[in-house]
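Tutorial sheet, problem 5. The two components below are modelled jointly, 960 residues in total.
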Amino acid sequence: MEGSAMIRHLAAVLLLLILGGCQQPSDVELTQEEYEADLEVRSVVVPDTHVVLIPVDSSAVLPEDQLEFRAFFLLNNVTHDAGGIRRSFSYSRVYAADSAIRFMGRTVGFRGMDLGNMRLNGVPMIKLPHIVRIKRGSQPDSLVLGGFEYLQDLTGQYQPDQPYLWSASTPGMGTISQGIRSAGNLIVHSPAGGSVVSREKDLALRWTGAGGHLSVIISSFDPWTNRTRPLLEFRSRANSGRALIPGKLLRELPRQHPYYVFTFVLANRVDTVVLQGYSGRVMVQAASIYNSYVELR
Amino acid sequence: MLGLILITGRPDLCAQSLITARQIGLAAYGAEVRDSRGFSLNPAGLILMRDWDFTATTYGSPTLGRDGFVFHGLTFGKRFLENEAAAFQYSPGTSMRFVVPPTINIDPPNNPTSNDREIEYAEPFSIGVAHRFDEHFSVGLGARFRRETLTETTYEIIVGDTATFPSVSVEEVRATGWNVDASVLWRPSDLFSLGLTGRNLLTLAAGDTPDELSAYRLPKSAIGEISLATRATRTLLLAASAGTDQAGAVGGEWTPGYGIAIRGGLYFNAKESPTAYATGLGVGWSYEFLELGVAYLHFFDQTNRRGSSPAGEFDPSGIRNIDLNPYTSDRVTLTVKAIFGNIRERVALIESVAMLGSVYPSAYEVFAYRPIGTARVRNISSEPIHAKAAFYVDQYMDEPTESGPVTIQPGESVEIPLTAVFNERIRKVSTLTIKEGNVTINASPADPEDDRYQTPVLIQGRNAWDGDVLTLRYFVTPDDPDVIRYSRDVLLNHRDTLIQADRSLESFQKARILFDDLAEKLMYVNDPKQSADYVQYPTETLRLRGGDCDDLSVCFVSLLSSIGISTAFVDVVPPERPEESHIYLLFDTGVDPKFGSHVSPNPKRYVLRKNRRDIETVWIPVETTVVARGFEEAWTRGAQEYFDDVEIGLGTIKGWVRIVDIN
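Model answer (structure tokens):
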């Protein structure tokens, strides 16, 4: 091959190589300090039901789950932080739905099964009548007693990150034994309870607390009725203690409600439990719940 | 222009481009733009292209931990006519995208993950034109199409009775426009060049700029740059540049030979830390139409240059250039340049051409050996060259006549003689004519030419004579059929006389017969222009029945030569009376000197000299001006003149008499 012909071949090969440099120029990543958290945002479904549900801010169970699951073993440590007012309590509740309670042709609740003598860590729980509320518009709710549920006030006794065991011996279901490890202590630094949060700026979420999956539920809050309406659930992929909610998402939250509750939930949950002789789904959950009440402007 | 730039605004953009390995290696490139590579730095440099020019560039970023290369762009350039050039650049690689990663994902996997925000700056197209006013000064105009795009992820929350639905969408806003640059390039010699470039002198926006984008726009203020390049030695080029943006560069290129170039440069910026913030190193290799370049650009401080930067510190106003800015990472660049058409960089330059005089058609053959002029040629390359000069005059030459190769050392100039092989058509030029002579220089057999030069060539009329007796012989045409026919006819008419004559005096008798015949037909007359520079060809003299001494001598010599008699011109230029210069002739009788008395008993009436066979014979001087009086009188006058001029005046010894043999 002559020299010039070889050069032509070389030129052709090089041009192909260059034109084949098909990668795009590298991006420059403008990193945010809280980038690692990476929250997944989920919609919150509030089923169209006449069953009165228990608030998320104290149960850490979303409305949809309250209807999906029929039996609950809950161990919750709850804090409400409104800035000047901070209240904490701990409790355990056990309830297994039985038959439906109907009123005017509509299901308004379920009777609670009698699970015998339920103990938590060997300590007998209080067996109470299960109260079903029937909403009557602007009038006070009517109360219907249907079966039983079990409660234990653990305020002052609750130990984070410790094993807890529910046990009972029932006539119909035999022996029940469900254990779980309590969630770690959860403290929320941002948003601080009682603070004013700008809708136009990114909101940094900061917390400390390990030993469980962390999620944040944003709920609108009506201070006059003291009722909350869960709107969005944020699930943290890596409970790193920090996350960022873009201002352009906060801007979209309904403006008729200036007050919101950021419910931080650090939970250990088992939802595959099977109780002998019980056909419904069972949820066993230990959660640290921290509610920050803020005003969005 | 620089002053204009200085007052038009705050400097923000530095004039750098990374689309060519040579630019990266040399760092200070503004005065060294000589083709389509990096022409946006100084469009005026496009004028230095030879013809078609094509460049392709790719780069990789080793410090980003990515494999593979990015196609930076390709450029086409073309030089038009002698003084115009244009280029187009497609550069998808002149692009930078800043991304703000998402902090939330809406309802995965139903919604794809998109960046929270993307800001992209790109200059995918550039054009440039250049015009050369003269060999040293050219101007250029360039325009860069810039695109600035903001892609924003937006959210919506729909609150229903039974559920809350977050959704995500992506909105894109864009601003486009042309940024216009202007430049000049001054090259007083091949050793020095000065470039001035004004960038962003004019911004032509296409449409309105969306409000959302205003916080992310790049600065558009004008900037000026001055750049210098000088060839310190024949193998070392030094370059420097400085801009009103407080950025500058210095660099050098060493060309040891074999087409190899080694480059190195330093980049400066007062706003960077350290001030000398980057270095470029490169190697180039050129062969025939191909040129390869590889360069590595390294930044001394890698902060923000490894593909990420804190979002809070992002400042678009600090992005002075899409290619080279505080976020640019180290890169390896590979450039291929190919030249098409007139593909070779010229290595020789014609500095001047000097014609040594007019062309006399009568003596056109002499220029095949004797220079018609000289071309002063300089080697502008860094290696010795073997240059050949060619000369061509349209119509009167069938092909260019090429000189032999002349070796010229780098930077040296030599005079190359130009010769010319004319065709017969030149003998038909009747009056003084001026033609265009084309001189080309070629330093490589593979390519057509390195340089071209045009010079006027004076072609005299066919009868013009330069007065030199040496060239008078070119009017002698013994082979002319009319001459041959005339001499044959005359001798045939005197056949009886010749038969009876002494054989040893045959040539003498033939000459006498021919001359006497002429005496009956011709007469002496002066030149039509009263000038000694007009000589008739023998056929013209025979047809016109007369002529001056030159014409008659030429005619008689032609007739004698046509029958094989040797002749010579006697050119007499009396030193004290040059205006009385004169020509007569001698012819060879072929008679041995010992038989000279057979020709004439008076030895002063003939001359003894050697003929072309180096044999001494008897020669007869003839003064043709007295042609009308017959041979005897012409011989007598000729012998007397020869005796006076040569024997008494010693003209041949003193040099004012020249005897020029014709055959």
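Marking note: The first helix of chain B runs from residue 2 to 8. Full credit if you identified this.
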